[in-house]
Amino acid sequence: MAKHRPEPELDRELADLPPELRWREWMRRIEAVLFASASPVPREDLAKVVGQEASIELLIEDIRADLVGRSFEITKAAGGWMFRTRPAYAPAIRAAADIGDQGMDLSALDVAVLTAIAYHQPITREGLKDIFAKDISRDLIGRLHARGLIGTGPRSPRRGAPYTFVTTEEFLVLFGLETLCDLPDREQMQDAGLLK
What we know:
- The chain is 42% helix and 10% strand.
- It is mostly helical.
- Helix 1 packs across helix 3.
- The N and C termini lie far apart (69 Å).
């Protein structure tokens, strides 16, 4: 039976290293954490692996510079950073892994409802009915929920306390948004022909 040895405490400051090597080690640590994570890693978590004098933002920028010309990059989404394959390599990944198209397979109405939720959250089904002038089915809401794009928000203060719906971190990651403030404004949507 293997003996459990306590892990040594992580030396964040690396005071024994020259400044350039210290910086390079901090970059490697951030790369390792991002590589190991399937979801965006917030600044607070990255700060746990580097010294107090380290700037997470400058370290990320230096890593990005090192990745120029590589098939992957660091992107900021949902309040953190993550590695993503550059879009130009999607066909190669699909061909090698025989995974086909992994699009979300959302209908135009699904996308419209998801957009309405994103811009008006928290919103009830009744609120969606007001926007679309028709009932939005529980099945459609269920599909968006099952894909992790929406979740339930606070109960509405109206009679019967209906559920409200909000977007999720998965929504932000899928659309490459850091926060909901990164959603295009109404004028941008009209210019793109997505709104009348």
